[in-house]
Amino acid sequence: MLSSPLLTIHEVADLLKVKEATVRSWINDKDLRAIKFGREWRVARKDLEEYLNVNANIPAPS
After folding, report:
1. Per residue in 5-43, is it b (16+ CB within 10 Å) or e — as a string?
2. What's 44's domain CATH number?
3. 3-state SS record for the chain
4. Most buried residue, 14, 58, 59, 62, by most Cβ within 10 Å?
5. pLDDT value at residue 60
6. What's the pLDDT score for residue 11?
7. Is residue 42 part of a domain?
8. Exposed/middle/buried for 45, CB within 10 Å: 0-12, 13-18, 19+?
9. pLDDT digit string (tens) for 7-24?
């Protein structure tokens, strides 16, 4: 069902070299799509890629 694992907030923050609080803010502001499992949030790789594409200042190649 899942072709790639879901990322934790820590993993997203580490990949992007930002603080976990920043990632939580993106999730709380509904800018970054995430799934809540109990008290923990997970982010699908495709949702992280979409967030990065939408927020890039350089258009993606066609």
Report:
1. ebbebebbbeeeeeeeeebbebbeeeebebeeeeeebbb
2. 1.10.10
3. CCCCCCEEHHHHHHHHCCCHHHHHHHHHCCCCCCEEECCEEEECHHHHHHHHHHCCCCCCCC
4. 14
5. 63
6. 97
7. yes
8. middle
9. 999 999 999 999 999 999
Count of domains for the chain: 1
Is residue 24 in some structural domain?
yes
Residue type, 10: H
- Tens digit of pLDDT for each residue in 13-52? 999 999 999 999 999 999 999 999 999 999 999 999 999 9
